[in-house]
Amino acid sequence: MLKHRMLKTEKVGEGDEEQGSSRFENKIFNDYDRDHQDDNMKKYMSRQLFSEGMHFSIKFAKKTLRTTALWGALVFIGYLIGSEALPTALLSVNWLFKPPPTLKQIYYSRNCHEILNSTRPLYTEEQWQRFRDIWKLQGGEDPSKLYKRHDRRKSKAPLDFVPPIRAGYTTDGRGRGIFATRDIKKGEMTYGGTKHYIFFNDGHSYRRFLEALSDEEACDIMKFTWPQNGVGRKGQPVIWGPMDDMALQNDGGKRGANTGCPKHKHCGLFDEYALRDIQKGEELLCDYNTFFTLDFLEFEKWKKFGL
Description:
Structural class: mainly alpha
Helix content: 40-55%
Oligomer: single chain
Strand content: 5-15%
Mean pLDDT: 78
Low-confidence stretches: 1-21
């Protein structure tokens, strides 16, 4: 009986040891899980704190920038009001949102419809040179200088060629024109070369050039220049015109023209020849239809340049 109790006690002791070991192992695993969860929570909280901090910093920076910009604008407006410069500033802001003027708008805003109907003066060589200098200072470039060596558009005029022409007034009431300074034989060159031409590839550069001129000068330039295809280096259209007395040449039509390109002759893009004998003092006329329409200011032609 005693032995049986001892064996039973031993068995109970063994069970207690097993249960105690199991409880110890569970405690270790529970402690590990708790520690692991605490680490994850700490990492999560760190990320949350970092995210909240960044969000607050960005929000604060934006608010600060807006406040600074607002105060800066108020100070600037106050300065303008105090300096009486506000009207100019408002006009400048208005200009930023307005489309650039078309040629027609420039024409009428410059009062060209009245100016060109009045007697216009002849330009001196110094005045023509001033136009060419303004064009060059604004970055003007001659596309013909980029033509390839054997390009058929290149001028055949010698470098020292001097056109036998002078400016004057016509006797038939048409106003200005050009006249022969000597007798000119049929087939002789009357004009050539590009050294006095100006070129514009877009409406912006053309507007900028006109802005540098007086109303009277700008109206004349709009009459002396025209858009034409095939002039650019790769044949693209440009706005161009001669800045010398050649700009005053009048139209004679197909029958009345005494200068141009003779039949069966290849002429450079910028060259003209006598189509018959021309006497000294006779007016030199060309046929406008050979290179543009009769109306220099046919506004539809300018739209491809944004004008």
